[in-house]
Specification:
The chain has 18 helices and 13 strands. The protein is α/β, with parallel strands linked by helices and 436 residues long. Helix 3 links the parallel strand 1 and strand 2.
Length: 436
């Protein structure tokens, strides 16, 4: 059929428009959108408000379409109930910014982004591997657009290590265990006055949930997963065909540090919070999130510490750490869902990612940004590299997971349960929480 000049021009406009749309989704760059494509967008999130508001201010300088995007900090513990109430009263935010640790409690309130909007190939090509935790079950799309990641790292008191003749922090768990006799200081009654690292107990170990998760993940234990019928269940590696199960090995390794009968004894439940011990200079090593560097600097400006990757097993085939990956999610009842999606896309552009990472102390979640040279900051250098090896799992609400993990560790350290029994009990408890 022969087209008139007007029809040919109109067809050309539609083709160009379609190609531009495909390019936007494939490259996550929306520089061509107009200001009313975003409009007013209100974000509720669990990241600190000062850092996020600074990030949005810088992002708006780069792209004026983000000038009406605002942020409200929310308590992670109450975020699901806050969202439920807001939806019920017609006051839902346009975006929710939270980590995978809040995803399961939030998922019933979130609109998955369909694969017709962002394909699996586009998503996996643009975002770090841990971002796949936001994939909705059954191929329904993605619950969120990854934004930033906060990986676990190892903080080391350089003064303590140097005074013991140790040039570098341990890179393997085996090397770390060997340092206990050189670093830990105990009284004749086995009271700890200086520890090597805070492992073995739970409630006074800062970020214990993340540390235990990292140990399980390093052993190839997924912690949770979807069954054939689509139900989410816990998996702590508690079964083995013979010998010690992988999960039991994790518990045995972790709890040895609080066993007074072992050479690795360097911590116990009567000590102060591990972060405070590190700040006061009474703890040589502290595993925590990369973003905590700012807290340590502010809490003790004289603390001489360095940041390195968390240890790995000497026989591990590859590196793995635990990380919190924060993503933008569109809740049910969002008044500006289209603008919310556009804002999330814009905030994954290069300049916006750099501004957000700098303002929050986290690492970018886009692979293109992580592939670049990191900022000239020793913490950021480690955080960017560790973000690529970060992993996680879909867990119950953090408070519920803490209760289960704390009970599991206490059962083992008190002798109430053998490791495999404690694992089984914890696995059943987590599964019940995930399926309620």
């Amino acid at each position: 059929m022969k087209l008139s000049p007007f029809q040919a021009i109109l067809l050309g406009v539609f083709v160009v428009g379609a190609l531009v749309g495909l390019f936007v989704f494939a490259t996550f760059s929306s520089k061509g959108t107009t200001s009313n494509a975003v409009g007013t967008v209100v974000i509720w999130g669990t990241l600190p408000g000062d850092g996020m508001r600074a990030a949005l201010t810088e992002a708006a300088k780069v792209d004026q379409t983000l000038k009406n995007v605002s942020y409200v900090e929310k308590d992670a513990a109450t975020l699901p109930s806050d969202i439920a109430t807001a939806i019920a009263t017609g006051a839902a935010p346009d975006l929710v910014l939270a980590s995978q640790e809040e995803l399961h409690p939030l998922s019933k309130f979130i609109q998955p982004i369909p694969l017709s909007t962002i394909s699996a190939n586009t998503f996996e090509s643009n975002f770090l591997q841990e971002g796949n935790l936001f994939a909705a079950p059954g191929g329904a799309g993605y619950f969120g657009i990854p934004f930033l990641v906060d990986p676990l790292v190892l903080f080391s008191n350089r003064s303590i290590l140097s005074s013991a003749g140790i040039a570098k922090p341990p890179a393997t768990w085996e090397a770390l265990v060997g340092l206990v006799p050189n670093i830990a200081v105990l009284t004749p009654t086995r009271q700890i006055t200086r520890g090597l690292i805070a492992l073995g107990s739970y409630d006074n170990v800062h970020s214990a949930r993340a540390i235990l998760s990292a140990l399980f993940l390093q052993q190839g234990i997924p912690l949770s997963g979807y069954s054939a019928n689509g139900a989410l269940a816990a998996s702590l590696g508690g079964s083995a065909s013979g010998g010690s199960s992988p999960g039991s090995s994790v518990l045995g390794f972790y709890t040895q540090f609080s066993d007074p009968s072992k050479v690795s004894y360097t911590w116990n439940s009567s000590l102060p919070d591990s972060a405070q011990m590190f700040v006061s200079g009474d703890l040589a090593l502290c595993i925590d999130y990369a973003s905590r560097a700012g807290f340590f600097r502010a809490a003790n400006p004289n603390l001489d510490f360095i940041v390195t990757p968390i240890p790995q097993s000497a026989t591990a085939p590859g590196k793995k750490t635990y990380g919190l990956v924060y993503a933008f999610m569109i809740p049910n009842g969002a008044k500006n869902a289209s603008g919310a999606y556009q804002a999330a896309v814009l905030l994954t552009n290069s300049a916006e990612q750099e501004a957000a990472a700098s303002a929050t102390g986290l690492a970018p979640a886009t692979v293109n940004e992580l592939a670049k040279a990191p900022p000239a900051d020793p913490v950021a250098e480690v955080a960017y590299a560790e973000a690529l090896t970060a992993d996680g799992w879909l867990s119950p609400a953090p408070a519920d997971t803490n209760r289960v993990f704390s009970g599991m560790i206490e059962d083992v350290t008190s002798g109430r349960s053998m490791p495999d029994t404690a694992l089984s009990d914890a696995e059943n408890a987590l599964t019940a929480l995930l399926q309620r």
